[in-house]
Structure to design on (194 residues):
């Protein structure tokens, strides 16, 4: 009925035929996908044929690609109640905290330190994902807003507003993004009349 995380819409594999082990690796692999490719046409046809909704989770995916953004989330203090590990991100705001914390996060959460080239590739992958979401929306695939909280540094409540903004920027516009968080989401949950 629905697919969560647009980054998982295609069976992306590394050169060795194995899926990338991290979200960042998956996003970087999207950099080589053309938004207008035949594989995206096939995907759209399959989603429409099955009546499948897509919940892109653009903000959450974006967050996995930037440790600095995770650490400097403005509402991070409010998150420790639902994700006690958020206190580690707060500690990483200290000069030594970032050095020590970076190693911890690489081993525990799979958040790699990216080179400048890898960051650029991840940004291209995020751009492709946004373009694919725009194509899905234009083609009539129902898009739903979701936040994937409480994943690292995606704060409940605030993050859905960030996702709505990302959807608007990705081609849904303000009306489409608000509908993704309200009426389209209600339709997915079979609560349209409520």
């Amino acid at each position: 009925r629905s697919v969560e995380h647009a980054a998982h819409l295609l069976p992306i594999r590394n050169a060795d035929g194995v899926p990338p082990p991290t979200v960042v690796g998956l996003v970087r692999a999207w950099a080589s996908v053309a938004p207008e490719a035949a594989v995206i046409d096939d995907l759209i046809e399959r989603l429409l044929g099955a009546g499948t909704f897509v919940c892109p989770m653009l903000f959450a995916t974006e967050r996995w690609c930037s440790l600095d953004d995770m650490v400097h989330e403005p509402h991070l203090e409010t998150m420790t109640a639902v994700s006690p590990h958020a206190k580690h991100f707060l500690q990483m705001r200290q000069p030594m905290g970032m050095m020590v914390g970076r190693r911890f996060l690489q081993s525990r959460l799979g958040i790699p330190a990216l080179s400048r080239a890898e960051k650029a590739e991840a940004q291209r992958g995020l751009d492709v994902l946004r373009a694919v979401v725009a194509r899905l929306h234009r083609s009539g695939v129902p898009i739903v807003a979701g936040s994937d909280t409480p994943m690292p540094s995606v704060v409940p409540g605030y993050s859905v507003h960030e996702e709505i903004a990302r959807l608007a920027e990705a081609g849904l516009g303000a009306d489409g993004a608000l509908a993704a968080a309200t009426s389209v989401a209600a339709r997915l949950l079979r609560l349209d009349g409520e």
User: Anything to note?
Assistant: The chain has nine helices and two strands. The chain has a mean pLDDT of 89. The first helix runs from residue 23 to 30. The longest strand covers residues 2-4.
